[in-house]
């Protein structure tokens, strides 16, 4: 029985460490106000100081839109419809300025970064590396922890119910010059709001790439060319080709929808299969015909879990961990 007892003790210790890690971040909520590491170096932040991202007109044509009739196929998506099916999708904002690419220019722009993120468990969210850190800056000291802002959950008057800070816990080796770059980060939130039944989180699904072109997709995010409180979605878009790492798709988006989930519906439930990343050869008009040379790209979500055993364990443990009971708040909500 000794080997079994040793294994049991190790498992219990791991579970306690995981619980302490989450609890420490949640309980130290107030300590995150003040100076914290961010993509810019050190930022001063207040939990309630959520700025509107700067207007970057020159970026609004990045990421391509395809439609046979020439009409943008995106529509406003309610965050409370279909049993809060889209509620786990939130808005990411950097705490400080980041460098970002401008089509046709070699010098980067600089400003507050803005994108989309989504919950994959009560405490963890996913977005793109370039959303959290920009396109060019590689000077991060990874012995430090970096933070972003995350707004999520339907509130009153189209507002967000939760305004949180998230700490980057894992990331891919992103390189803007590489076509096979792992453009993702996993973020630990300072409150596990995915346990709120009116927010929730997405379960994942694996893509059958042999038949992927027959699988209707949905991309939903917070594009910069729309009001920042509005979730916009393109339904029934398609994968055109892919592999175990990434896939090309024709789901319409604009800047701000980087980091948005690529979703499939299974038995009436939306599951996430990918993370929207970017595009080839961005155009400033709606394209009537899909071209592979102008495809939009996404990372296969399996890639994150298959390459990071730590992320897989964090998320699995988080789903079975006991979280705050939000049921008492439901009567006061929308």
Order of helices and strands: HEEEHEEEHEEEEEEEEEEHH
The residue ranges in which pLDDT falls below 50 over 5 or more consecutive positions are 1-18, 27-36, 40-61, 330-334
Radius of gyration: 20 Å
Largest sheet: 8 strands, antiparallel
* Coarse morphology: globular
CATH homologous superfamily of the largest domain - what is it? Trypsin-like serine proteases
Strand arrangement across the biggest beta sheet: 3-11-10-14-15-16-13-12
Name of the CATH class of the largest domain: Mainly Beta
The CATH architecture term of the largest domain is Beta Barrel
Number of H/I helices: 5
Q: How many domains in all? A: 2
Number of extended strands:
16
Q: CA-to-CA gap between the ends?
A: 54 Å
- CATH topology annotation of the largest domain: Thrombin, subunit H
Q: What percentage of residues falls in helices of 4 or more residues?
A: 10-25%
Mean pLDDT across every amino acid position? 76
Q: How would you describe the overall organization of this protein?
A:
The protein has 5 helices and 16 strands. With 334 residues, the chain is α+β, with helices and mostly antiparallel strands. It has 2 domains: 29-60 and 86-202 and 306-326, Thrombin, subunit H; 212-302, Thrombin, subunit H, CATH 2.40.10. Strands 3-11-10-14-15-16-13-12 form an 8-stranded antiparallel β-sheet. A hairpin with an 8-residue loop joins strand 4 (89-100) and strand 5 (109-119). The model is unreliable at 1-18, 27-36, 40-61 and 330-334 (pLDDT under 50).
